[in-house]
TrEMBL record:
Belongs to the IFI44 family. The lineage of its organism: Eukaryota, Metazoa, Spiralia, Lophotrochozoa, Mollusca. It comes from Magallana gigas. Gene3D superfamilies: P-loop containing nucleotide triphosphate hydrolases. Pfam families: TLD. This is TLDc domain-containing protein. Residues 1-175 form the TLDc domain. It comes from the Eukaryota.
Amino acid sequence: MPELLSKKYRDQLVTWIGRTCHFQLVYKISRDGCSAPTFHQKCDGQGATVTVLYNTNNTIYGGYLSQSWNSNGGWINDPNAFLFRLQYNGSSNPLKFPVTGTGNAGYGHSNYGPTFGGGHDIYTFSGTVSPSGKAFSLNGGLTILGHSYNLNGQNVNTIANNSLEVTNLEVYKVIDGPGQTVPDLDKPWREHDGWTNETMQALKESLLDYKPMTETNVTAANILLIGQIGAGKSSFFNSVNSIFRGKITSKACSGSFEHSVTTMYRQYKVKDFSKGKFLNFRLCDTRGFEEEFALDAQEISFILDGNIPDRYQFNPLVPFTPDTPGYIKDPNMKDKIHCVAFVIDGSTVDVMSDTVQKRMKDLQVRMNHRGLPQVVFLTKLDKICPDVNDDVKNTFTSTAVCDAVEKVAEIMGLPRAHVLPVKNYESETKLKPALDILLMQALQRCLDFADDYMDEQLDKMAAEGKNVQSKD
Ligand SMILES: Nc1nc2c(ncn2[C@@H]2O[C@H](COP(=O)(O)OP(=O)(O)OP(=O)(O)O)[C@@H](O)[C@H]2O)c(=O)[nH]1
Ligand SMILES: [Mg+2]
């Protein structure tokens, strides 16, 4: 799990500490659990430490002690201690508050988490605190009245939003010497082409120009959207459709219900309204699968192979068979799926059940068997990270998104580059270039993979001596 303290803030702390040093993460509540005994087990006797709180208002604050933490139930005397604020409401805003009452710089108690100052100025928590969702409501107390520190006119609100509701708390051991170079967390975790209007237009042009490989009879690449109910499959089609429509549309029904909103198999084409032509791909929208309600795996095989017709009404009680009216008996390459996109709600990655994971694995076996490329559209980024909610341009610098991408890649057994973060249009009333860029980049990757797949199929057919220009 990456460390949260960015290079910029590390450099600031080093300046304040006033000697060449670096930081080693020794305790992190999201990783180790928010528990006083664990904190002391990991941090007591470690020498100088920095405690950093990340609150849900995007404010980063904490304290430095040059003396070790202990569990003795007594004050820690430290003439070098200071409290600090690094970031306030999402903006870098560093301030140092030096110790004034050195005898009460810290307080070491076996049942207390990190505690600073008489009063106490910052008393993080006692005992054990369980997370609720992605946050921890720390049960300590925040006064920051400057009992033992010089606040320079600041107060508990301007330093910490008077909030102990944190997404994380980390304790770093301070080690003398320069240490290794730390990755710059402000640098993007994935290369991307930027967020300009030009990037957006270039992507749009490239999708408009897209044609499947000419050696095949395929006129449109088929991308299957598959995943749990409510993950955003239909919204993905609506979003892409909106981009080329030039305004927000919602042709496919979307919403949140107990059972899948989508009940019909639809092979959607997208029309560009400025040029009046259809794009050469189809987004194939399926019924979502539910916790206790599996998709019939054989039905999915029929979709992959092109046996199921457009507008087939899914019936969970009566799965599709070759006797079902509309069954396409001799599908060829143009009817088949050429790339699969698992649509996964990014905000539920941490709580994805074993049943759901197993279901997706079972489907993957069928896809692997056919050599089908697979990607993940990781949706609802706005719910993973407040910075992304503010502005999707923060997607590739957000550690929360980076974490979710890594986790999904691991669950699905796919390379990280196949996990494509997107934010669908849902509450917006106007198109936004940054959203368009994420959506179109994801689509472009799918089409590249679809081409690879068709290429591979052609090679295979050639090797088997079949006529690649098969009848229509
Ligand atoms: N915040 C947020 N909400 C989203 C996003 N994408 C989809 N939604 C919402 O999630 C809900 C479900 O979206 P759908 O597109 O209907 O999901 P689906 O996968 O088609 O679901 P079923 O057809 O029921 O299987 C809707 O209320 C959408 O508005 C997103 O990126 N961010
Ligand atoms: Mg749907």
